[in-house]
Structure formats: structure tokens, C-alpha cells
């Protein structure tokens, strides 16, 4: 397994084999298998307080402040009161504990909701309703239609013929199409007889718990016989039982051992890159703090030795305490005084800012999806600023980029294109929701949800044009769809792929209604007349053939083969007489492909009775041989599928979600690379890649990696690098990761000689993730503009994300909508869940969620960028104001004999971060924005600085520290010089400590407030109120605390009596405040002016445009339908698995007549389940600019078998 494999569940003892005996709990309990209960919560009532405090004190800052609190309780070294640390620390712990408790309570509720579901369990020879969490391995349980599967079960019996069950696996692999499972005959005979089931004592030996969804191996021992077990006999937890009245199953794996939980991925605590950088900076600050304290302690040592004897008269030393011990105490005293370099209010403010920005996301009406009443949700509040630094987006396809809804859009029949709408001048009109639709009222069996806009096709059907009728007859006959008719005329189709469902529905609406089928017949209604065709053979689809055919006998006794498949495959098998028709159809196919539609070519052939009789005999012989059966059948299929006559082509649209192409284009302009990781086959994913602008025709090349061995994959990757003109010998050129502090190395960013795309399939990706090839794969992929990984497993999705996280200095985001995306969502730095068609598993595991992919651009380009910008401004300013505050203490130490005397009033020290400067900086961090959302969309390049960490980094931090050092020098020495040897206007001395302290702290507050005003780019009434109000609050509190009344009440606490009115009524004090403010801010203003003139940033340029436009928002971009011209053939519209033809003809796929009605009212659609077959870009044709609906006069009209309608009784 690759280096990046995830150990989802760790067990104390590795299980090598599982042994389960049915209906024997005592025997099974001896193995101590996991119960069926799941637990995702972290705490309970008893463990919450100790565990949460333990986790919180693992943070360096919290532990540091706890140590400070202990030091402040020691009178010999503390010059500050204990409450200056206790109050902020308790507030931080309570705030964090409340948030953790709320999150864990939600997890408890989710666990309880699942664990308390009910299921019928066979206990003591009776079916009893039990909770899911009470189900044990070895129990036999009964499931009913539309019920969730409780655990991983061995299917024993069912209500369906041949013990089949139909399941939906959306929660496991994201596919909503139905899958079939079949029980062993020996257990199927048990039926629903409770007595027989209770007597069943079979023993299963199977593989241990693992995360492989597509494989299971085991044996069942029963009645002295052994029966092999495979994945087709298993029903997994996370599936839903569909179209099956009931079934019984034996529990093999429960709870954490089920494949669903094994695939859940490792849940890790996510931290932002700023958090990681902060940890490094905090350690550096601690080191610098220790250095400053050591310098001041040495100063105290020298001062005590040289000058301390002069002060012993009024500062007598304690017995036995010399200069060394005094220096030791001074060191710890300054640790307490200078602790404001990392104030605990920093962490409180960070949490409040993140919480506020999370509310903005949830309150954003432009991210609200009214159709489903689904608002955006910030499920975690700790990752907001990371949204402004995303470099790689990993996206699922079905349900995320697309709606997973197929619609019959256009077609070409006998050289004529249908589907476009023209006005009276002959100009093509764009189809919108207001365009008039075709009236299908002539067909009482039409599906009312089907829409089509070209009236010419309906007229052709009504005129009984033979080519058009043969076209839809083929669509009604050549498929593996199952029909269910609850009431007369109310048809429901169950299609194994959404493509087939769309084609059969189209034929239904145009008058060729597929009604029912048996293993040897197909009944359809042709223009109101019932007809029954004898089904003689199904030549099934597979990924090598890329086509399927049926051989039928019409009611008139005529034999005909109908075939549909990829156009390149069909063209190779056409009769030479179709050459001209093929050219015209090719032009239409190019037009369809240019619009990103999925295409199929349709053809037919008449068969001779004698030939078919001989072919059928040879087919029967080939199907019964034991060796080379597949090869012999393929040869027979190739033989009969020749000299076909072309009918035309279909074009199906896999509907993209609204705004997907525009979103991808915007994200690409923001230099965000998008990788699509999908379980679909290559052709489907590649089609969507082109239709959503992920892949573009302007790209120099789209590389397809499809090697079947390690060496093949490595060679293909190296060839791609060579094509991009890179030195493959430098593939291992890695940079040390100094920023992230990991042992791993970081791969350097490189630039290709153009735009490229990369498509790689699942089995090749497995080799590409091996240790020897992973860097080649990553290097090749990162050079490409877009990457599509097809047929990937949920675990491979997480491995790809982990690979990028390990070797690239970049922030990753994963977005998906199904349970198969959970591993990827958890592995990425940011996980986003789409509330879509595939359940809520992805949303429950995500950090953010919303209903549509298009909201991603607003989440990143607006909320993410603003959050990152605000957080960086906050941190720069917060460090500046606190470093400046603290460094003044440092300079004062040289003038107070290194006595640990504070330069400010004790109350000012306590309230500086909590009251005087808290609200202004919070106002900036919650409301500031450089440009509004409209300008952010118009200039997505504004997002790039966040990816490069330009707003806050180590360099920015050290620049901030130097700025603080300069400001502290001005703030100390200018007031010091102003009051030194100065007198008041009444002739009294003004150079006392209290007046100097008040003047210094007032100057400090004015300087940091004006600096905040320079930082803010967006002033609001709230910001203005906070700034002005904080200054007013400072003066109000100062004059109150320095009043006579408080001094008389508590003389020891309020000893600065009268200082406020005595110091601040002097004109010199206000002149000093003005002078210090100018000296501190003049370099900042000068530097900003020079930067704007000489090296303006992208933000500066856009803000200049905004000012020039007088802050008028630009007009919103017009969301026109994006049409793409292409010379590439769209992939064929097949996405179902092979083998369904055998099921149809064998009858095992058919439901018994008296089945329970389904609750679903529409054909289920979903993704592919077939194996993967690599296919590169199809041979292209140059589009011709001919009129779309002009029938070419020299096209040779093919002869078609004319059918006369034969009414059957009973219609």
C-alpha cells in the first residue's frame, strides 16, 4: 500500500481472519468483535472537564499564562496583581470549553440518532425490534424496502425471484443507480420462514475488516458443504434497500468494522497555516522575552553591585540576599511585567474574529439556495482565514459539478439535425426556460417532465417518416432498462445508467413507448399501437466493445440487429454505402461535442434467417465453454456487427450545476488549480471537463496516463514532463520546508511552456501513488492547468490530497457531496460539503457546506479573502501595539535601577488590551474590506497575495517588531525629555513618576489608535464609534480612577490621586502627544507613499480604480450560456456496467408481478460501475460551417425495414 494510506481504525490486535457462527451470540462474543454502535464524540459528563482542560493546556500560550499566574502569587517577584492574569485566562478557558462542548454535543446527537434506529433482529426464534447499537455480529436481521442497511451483512434470502435484492449505494460510492445482489441458493431456500432461519447454524470464515468496497472473500460452511462468498453476496452498511419487499441478512461486521466506517478516513484536528506560524512565532517571542529578562537581570546585578549601596538607607536588603539573588528575582519579575508581548487577549480576539466571520458566511443571502431552503453553513469557526489562501481545489464530479441529471438534448437522423430552435429569419435562437416547448399531448403515455423545443422532430414522427421511426424504435428496443407500471399508463423506468434512462424516455415521448419486458420479449407501444418483439440475443456492453446490440424478431417475423455505441466504434463497422451520410452525421457530432454533449451513434442491420440460425448455434456453444469464453463470444459479436446501416446520433446533456463554468474560470484567474477526483469513467469525466471549462481546446495537449504497470506509468509521466520541456532528471529537486517545520521536504514550483491538462485513471493512479513514482506524478500534475483522476476509490482521493499536502507548500480544499468524498474532505486543509443528491455524509464531515458549487467562488474570493486580510491586519496591528507597549517597559528599566518598576499605572496595564484597544481592533477585524464583493469578482487576482502569504509571514512579523521598537523609543524618550527638568505654568516641578506614566500611556494610546486608522481601508459607523468611544472611555476611566473619591475608598489600589487633572491641563503635555504621534507615524506614511508610487500591489491598483470610479460597483457579469466550439469528439454516452444483458435474458433481473409499489416517482440515475478502460482523445474532425437543418441533397438514403403496425389485444 502507498505511503499515504490512511489507517482509519487502529486495533490493539490485528485481526487475521473473522469467524462468525449464525444465531450463536455466546460463541461470537468470545472473539470480542466490535458492536454495531458508533462513537464520534470525544467527551462525556465525567471526562469533559479534565480532558478539555488537558487539551487546552497543551497549547503553549495557555500553559505559559498558567505559569505566569503562579509567579504572580509569589510576593517577592510580582509587581502586578494576580487578577491581571486570572481574569483573561478564565475567560479564554470558559469560551473555548463552551465551544468544544457545543461541538461535541452535536456529535453526541448525531451518534444517538444513528445508534437508536430500529431494526428487526431474530432472537430466541422471534423477530424483535432492537436498536442498531444492540445488534451483534452473528445476528440475523430483517430489512424492508427503503430501509437503511444496519451493518455489513451476508445476504441470506429475499422476497425477489432468485433471491435478488436491489440496493442504492449513494452513501458508499456516490452512485445513485441501483445495484443487484444475490444470495446463495442454499440460504435462499430459507425464505422468510422464521423457524428455518432460527435453525440456521452456518459458519462464515472471511477476511478481516478492511476498506475495500469492491472486494470480499470468504466461505460459508453449511450442512457439511463449503460455499464461496464474494462481494455480490454482501450488503454493506450505508446502502439503502430499494424495490425489494424484504430480505434477511447475517451480520458479519458491525459499527467501526464496517466498510463505511473503515473508509471514513482519520479525523484530525485542523489548524490554519496562520495558527502553525503563530506557534513558531510564539516560541520565538518566548525566547526573545527570556533574552530581554536576562539582559535586565544582568543590569540589575551590575546596578546592585555598583549603585545599590547608595540606596540601602531606605531600601534595606533582606538578610542573606545579595546582588545575585536580587538579579534572579528580577528576572522572574520582568517575565511577569513583559508578558504582554504575548497577551492572552490575543487568543480571545482571534476566536471572536473567526466566529464573527463565520456568521457572515451563514448570513450571506447570495449563498442561500432558495429551491432547497439551504443556507451556507460554517460548521467550524477556526478555519476562516485559510479560505483566503487556497491553492488547490479537489472536487468530486457527479453531484458536485453536475446535477447528475441526463436530458435528451439533440439528435441527428438521416443527415438532419434536430434540437435547435430558429426564428422567422432562420437565425438560431438560444434555448431558455421561456422557450416554447413541444406539445406531447398526442401521446397519453408521454412523461410530463420531458421537454424538447424543436417542433420539427415531432412533425417528422407524426408524418411517419421511416428514418425517424426507425431511430426511436431502436432507442425503445436496444437497452437494459426495466419498466414498472403501478397504474394504467403510469410508467417508471429503472435504468442502470442515467444515459439509458434519458434515451428510453425520449423514445417514449416521441411515440415509441417501452412498456415491459420478459427474458425473451420486449413490448413497446408504437404511435399508440402495442407491438411485441421477440428478444433473441443481447450483445452486451463492455469497456472494450464500447457498444451494445440487440437482435429482435418483429411481429412480422423480420430479423434485425440494432446497435448503439461510441461513434468511432460504430463508424468502423458501417457499410460503405453510408459514407456520405457518415460525413454529414460527423459534422453534427462535432457540433454536439462543441457544446459538451454526450453522444452515441445508432445503426441497424437486417439478418438472414439461415445465417442467424447458424450464428445462434455457435453463440450457444461459445457461451458454454469453460476456457476462452469471453474471447470466443467477442469474435462472434464482431462477426455479426458488421456492414451496419447508419441511422443517426443522439446528444445527451449531463446538466452542469448553474454557474459551474463561470466559477471554474474565476478560480483559475485567481491562480487556483482545480483537480477533479471522480469515480466515473474517463470519457464521462473528460466530457464534463470540457463542458465546464476545466479542459480547454486552447491547451497545447491533454496528457492521458493509462499505464498498467509501474514502469509504464513512470514512463508516461516522464514523457509528459519532456513534452512540457522540463528536465526530468530534476524531478527530485526539493526544497527544505522551513516554514511549516515538517521533516518532509517541499517540491519547488515550476512553470510549463504553455497550458496543459492531465487525465489519469484509477489503476494507473494506484501506481502513481507508489513511493518511487509519486513525485513524478505530483510534478507532472502540478505543471498542468487542470487534472482529472478517473475511477478513483474514496481512499485514493484522500491519498492524492495527502500527497499534495506533503510535498507542496500550499493550502488545499476538497469539495464533494457523497459519502465517498468523506476521506478527501477530512484529509484536505478545508473540507466543503455540498447538500446534494447523495445524502448528508459529506456535509456532516465538512468544515463548510452549501447547496451549489457556484457558491465556492464567493466563499473563497469574498469571504475567504476578507477573512484572511482581516486576520493578517489584526495580527500585524496587535503585535505592533503590544510590542510597543512592552518595549517602553524595557527602556524604562535602564532609568529605574532595573527594579521591575512598571512604567504605566497598574490599572492601565490591566485595561489596555481588555478595554482601551480591544473594540477598535475587533471593529477593524470584523468590518474592514479593501474592496467590495463586486470588485473582488471583477479582479480575482486580488486572491493571489493570500496564496503567497504576503500579508502575514515571518518577514512581516519582524518588520512589525522593528516598527514597534522605533515607536517605543519615541514614546519613551520624547515624553521623558519633555518632562525632564520641566516645570508647570505655576512654577512647580512637573517631572514626577506619576505624571510621566500618565503622559507616556496617553501618547501610546493616541499613537496606536491613529495607526489603527491608517490600517483600516473601510470605515463604518461601528468602527468610528469604537475608535472614538475607546479614546473617550480612556479619559473617562482615567479621570475616575485618579479621583479623590476612589483614593479615599481604596488608597492602596488608586494611588494616582489627582494626576489626571494635574498633568493633562498643561499645554506641554498635549504638545508632547502631538509630537510623539507625528514622529511615530511619519515614517509609516512616507513608506506607504513611496510604495504606492514605486511598487504598487494589486490591491493598491484596484483600490485606485475604486476611488476613480467613486466607489461605484461595477456591473455584475452577465451570466450568458457558454458555448464552446471543439474539434474533439464528445465521449459516448454509456456509463452502465457490463453483465446486465445476461441478467435481462436470464430473467434474474425481473421483479415478480406482485411487487410492493415503489416510493420513487422517477427513474433513478447515477454513476458508472463498469471497469475502466483507458481511452485517449478521439480522432477529431474539423467542424464544417453548413446550415444545421439543411438536408444534404446528395446523401444516399438508406433502405429501412418498414414495419406495419399490428395491434395486440389487451392494449
Describe the fold and architecture.
Residues 843-1097 form the P-type ATPase C-terminal domain. Its EC number is 7.6.2.1. The chain is an alpha+beta fold and 1211 residues long. Among the domains are: 355-400 and 657-725 and 751-852, Rossmann fold (3-Layer(aba) Sandwich); 402-655, Calcium-transporting ATPase, cytoplasmic domain N; 874-1108, no CATH class. The chain is 41% helix and 17% strand. It is built from 39 helices and 37 strands.
What does the largest sheet look like? 9 strands, mixed
Uncertain segments are 1-12, 729-744, 1120-1130, 1151-1211
Mean pLDDT over the residues: 81
CATH superfamily of the domain at 402-655, called what?
Calcium-transporting ATPase, cytoplasmic domain N
Strand order of the largest sheet: 14-37-36-35-15-29-34-33-30
Radius of gyration computed on alpha carbons: 37 Å
- Separate helix tally: 39
Architecture per CATH nomenclature, i.e. the level-2 architecture of the domain at 402-655: 3-Layer(aba) Sandwich
- Straight-line N-to-C gap: 60 Å
Q: What is the CATH T-level topology of the domain at 402-655?
A: Calcium-transporting ATPase, cytoplasmic domain N
Pfam family, one: PhoLip_ATPase_N
Transmembrane segments: 80-98, 280-303, 323-348, 878-901, 907-927, 956-978, 998-1019, 1031-1057, 1069-1090
Domain P-type ATPase N-terminal: 20-86
Biased composition (Basic residues): 1118-1127
